[in-house]
From TrEMBL:
Domain NOMO second beta-sandwich: 439-508
Signal peptide: 1-17
Name of this protein: Intradiol ring-cleavage dioxygenase
Region spans: Disordered: 265-293
One Gene Ontology molecular-function label: carbohydrate binding
Source species of the chain: Koribacter versatilis (strain Ellin345)
Keywords: Dioxygenase, Oxidoreductase, Signal
The keyword Signal is assigned to this record: yes
Length: 536
């Protein structure tokens, strides 16, 4: 089942934003949910752990207990399906057998042994260390960025999850951290750095020793400035990894940007640098409008950058520049270098669109490059689109959609991608279908319900319809529910302990498809035949 987060840690925050819902107590019944909370790493029982049971059909109905010295918990409940959650200081709060946002719900009733549960909590991980300068002295105020590798989209990707600032001794500590693979990087500024402006008028210039006109480049563990050479940090529950950084200064850039103040406003360019998972926004540096029509950016370390100039509120195509410590100029590109798109959306079977429908373009690196909200007619215009190939995405806050047809300048395109030339103006008509069906079923092994399996609904064309994938985790009785399913042809399969698979890659999931079930979804339905679980 999809995890519904109860306020073990969030209720107090929620109450600040809105009136908290009225929680009620699950009435006592003839069945018991009981067991022990133990450490995932040592197996030792965990005393003083808060355990909450929650009715999945009435989310405000809960019971709460605190475990004793033996880690034991016990609830008396009626027949039904219940989520189970636990939280303890020093451990990662979790639902029962949780993977990503999925978990296994407990089913009570005749034939289910729910009195001998073992609820495993993973200890919090810690990464700590020091940031030192070129002389081995501590760097205070350095920003340590923590990135983690995720697979919840079916393909591995790396995302920044938090930042930590070093103290006066250059020390940092990051906790709690879940088990996983992490990458660390550091942004800092030499305390002694001075940056004169190369484009300033003579009366405003002053001489500075070049040894002071320096900056620290973004540095990855272990002490590399190239993201592809960053060392991964595998962290298991309860691990304490020690990670130190040693920074080395490089000459600071001086990027001069000239514009006509009579016809253009001052729109500073945006800088990106290579990152762990594609280009990332660079630090802003120091900007000076030292004379009319001249903007200078400095305070950033020399290196490779993507520089995006702006026309109005829209960023133009990126210019790749190898910026050194010498003054370099970026010319204002012609506005025609970037293209525009006129979008019209049609949703099959709907005469009126829901509010706040959204249109986005995803580039070849899997990142959202352009995004806008459609009006009530399903129309919008996007300016400043760089030339290249894109995937079209449609969504809303209430419904999931799949793109079934894309017409570009009057001609249908294969799949649902777009290819834009430099400076092109493109008319795009998109046809989409909403995901309104719910598919339910059961995972079994040798005829008996199997809990904890990863259930994957694979579209007939997984290469071009990633948005049609659906997943769930089978509950205590093996049942599952897949909401917001888009009508179409699918293969449904269940994989034991398959949570680290790149399940959205056609080549990976195809090896399991031969043992899956081919189905057609037209409306909400319950599968008549159970799905046999497969080993990973």
């Amino acid at each position: 089942m999809k995890r519904w987060v109860l306020g073990l840690v969030a209720v107090s925050a929620l109450s600040l934003a809105q009136e908290p819902p009225p929680f009620t107590t699950i009435p006592s019944g003839a069945y018991r949910i009981a067991g022990a909370v133990v450490s995932l790493t040592t197996g030792e029982p965990l005393a003083r752990t808060r355990v909450v049971v929650q009715d999945t059909k009435a989310r405000q109905s809960v019971q709460t207990v605190m475990t004793g010295d033996d880690g034991h918990f016990e609830f008396q409940v009626p027949a039904g399906k219940f989520s189970l959650q636990a939280a303890r200081k020093g451990f990662i709060a979790s639902a029962f057998d949780q993977h990503e946002t999925f978990s296994t719900a407990i089913v009570t009733g005749a034939g289910f042994d729910t009195e001998h549960l073992k609820f495993k909590l993973a200890p919090s991980g810690i990464i700590s260390g020091r940031v030192l300068d070129e002389n081995g002295e501590p760097v205070r105020g350095a920003i340590v960025a923590v990135s983690r590798e995720f697979r919840n989209s079916g393909m591995p990707h790396i995302q920044v999850i938090r930042n930590q600032v070093t103290d006066d001794l250059g020390q940092y500590e990051i906790t709690p951290l879940q088990a996983g693979t992490y990458f660390l990087s550091v942004h800092a500024e030499p305390w002694y750095a001075v940056h004169p402006f190369a484009a300033a008028p003579p009366e405003q210039t002053y001489h500075v020793d070049r040894a002071l006109d320096v900056a620290y480049p973004t540095t990855y563990y272990s002490d590399t400035t190239e993201p592809e050479e960053a060392t991964p940090i595998p962290l298991r529950g309860g691990d304490h990894a020690s990670v130190d950084f040693h920074l080395a200064p490089e000459q600071a850039i001086h990027l001069v940007y000239r514009y006509d103040p009579a016809t253009r406003s001052m729109n500073p360019p945006a800088l990106e640098q290579p990152g762990l998972d594609g280009p990332e926004s660079a630090e802003q540096g120091i900007q000076s409008n030292s004379s009319p029509g001249v903007l200078e950016i400095t305070g950033l370390a020399a290196g490779r950058y993507l520089v995006h100039a702006r026309e109005g509120n829209q960023y133009q195509s990126a210019t790749e520049m190898d910026l050194s410590g010498e003054a370099q100029e970026l010319q204002q590109p012609d506005a025609q270098e970037a293209g525009s798109i006129n979008v019209t959306l049609q949703v099959t079977g709907w005469t009126k669109l829901p509010p706040k429908m959204q249109f986005a373009l995803r580039n070849g690196r899997g990142r959202i490059s352009n995004f806008t909200e459609l009006d009530e007619k399903g129309e919008a215009k996007i300016n400043g689109v760089a030339h290249g190939k894109y995937e079209v995405l449609i969504g809303s806050n209430t419904t999931r959609f799949a793109v079934t047809r894309v017409v570009q300048n009057g001609s249908a395109v294969e799949g649902h991608g777009l290819e834009l030339g430099s400076g092109s103006a493109t008319d795009v008509v998109i046809t989409a279908v909403p995901g309104t069906a719910t598919l339910e079923g059961q995972v079994v092994r040798k005829g008996k319900g199997f809990a904890g399996a990863m259930v994957v609904l694979v579209p007939e064309d997984p290469e071009n319809h990633h948005e049609m994938f659906r997943r769930d985790q089978s509950d205590f009785d093996g049942t599952f529910s897949l909401p917001n399913v888009i009508p179409g042809k699918y293969t449904i399969l269940a994989i034991e302990d398959g949570w680290d698979l790149d399940w959205a890659k056609p080549a990976v999931i195809a090896s399991y498809g031969t043992k899956g079930k081919q189905i057609t979804v037209n409306k909400s339905d319950v599968l008549k035949d159970a799905v046999e679980v497969q080993p990973k």
